[in-house]
Write a structure and sequence with these properties.
By secondary structure, the chain is of the alpha/beta class. It contains 10 helices and 7 strands. The strands form 2 sheets. The protein has a 5-stranded mixed β-sheet. Strands 6-7 form a two-stranded antiparallel sheet. It starts with a strand and ends in a 5-residue tail after the last strand. About 20% of the residues are buried. The model has no long low-confidence stretch (mean pLDDT about 90).
């Protein structure tokens, strides 16, 4: 008899529900959200698992890789699709969610998502951290521009290099403002230094990657765009046709069709 399992993962604990091919609940348990604890439950020789489902989330990549390495038929399910399927339940609990996921695995009512490779996850981490530091530095610069304008001090058009010198020039004769501005300038300086470090790391990776170098031969494509595309596509073989790549990036039009109504909307931006 085939068995199916649903995992409702949270930070500390994971609710596990195991059902047979008739839908009868065989076992329900709550264990720690650690690969060892889950494997202790899912490697029971009495159960022959056909599908094991878990929702895409912060811990899903880590747990998915651990269960897949153990030879278990684990599937990572798309979040919005699972939320819509579980919405029919009256009571929202971890136990009921695990039951719903297990039944979805049994009847095949799920939409799997690609779990990125470890290298792709590291590249995305680099890109995300670089963008985070960049956004914080820009936010500090915009805040300084706005607050100094209240005192009639206009920063004007200055680049990243001369920004700090321009701020110090404006508050040079106003000691009480200089004391308030200095901490933000120090934080901005450190952020800019770390952005340079991450960007150099990004350039080094792109320089050694043949695919990124080939992508950069396209006009308008630089190192950041090339590496972002490379990390998102990850495994090209997972796409059956090139037309599907645009949908992953959210570059396809939304559509609504019902009866005689059939219209295509704007780009959905619903994707990676």
């Amino acid at each position: 008899m085939d068995h199916f399992a649903g995992l409702d993962v949270s930070v500390k604990e994971t609710s596990v529900c195991i059902v047979d091919d008739t839908g009868r609940i065989v076992r329900e348990v709550k264990v720690a959200s650690e690969p060892e604890a889950l494997l202790a439950v899912l490697t029971n020789p009495a159960c022959h698992f056909k599908r094991i489902g878990l929702e895409a989330g912060p811990l899903s990549q880590w747990l998915f890789n651990a269960l897949a390495e153990a030879g278990l038929p684990v599937i990572c399910v798309e979040t919005r699709h699972m939320r819509a399927a579980l919405k029919a339940q009256i009571n929202k609990t971890d136990r009921n969610d695990a039951r719903g996921i297990a039944q979805m695995m049994r009847v095949g009512l799920y939409r799997p998502v690609h779990v990125k490779t470890l290298r792709s996850q590291k590249l995305r981490m680099l890109l995300t951290h670089r963008k985070l530091l960049q956004s914080k530095a820009i936010a500090i610069e915009n805040d300084l521009r706005g607050t100094l304008r209240n005192f009639g001090l206009k920063v004007g058009m200055v680049g990243k290099v001369r920004f700090e010198a321009r701020i110090q020039e404006l508050v040079e004769n106003i000691p009480d403002l200089a004391v308030l501005v200095e901490p933000l300038l120090i934080v901005r300086r450190v952020l800019r230094e770390q952005i340079v470090i991450l960007h150099r790391r990004l350039l080094a990776i792109v320089r050694e990657d043949e695919v990124c170098r080939r992508l950069m031969t396209t006009p308008g494509v630089g190192p950041v765009v090339a590496l972002t595309y490379r990390a998102t596509v990850d495994v090209p073989a997972r796409f059956r046709k090139s037309k599907s790549v645009g949908a992953v990036f959210g570059l396809t039009c939304s559509r609504y069709q019902s009866g005689e109504i059939d219209w295509s909307g704007k780009i959905s931006r619903c994707g990676d």
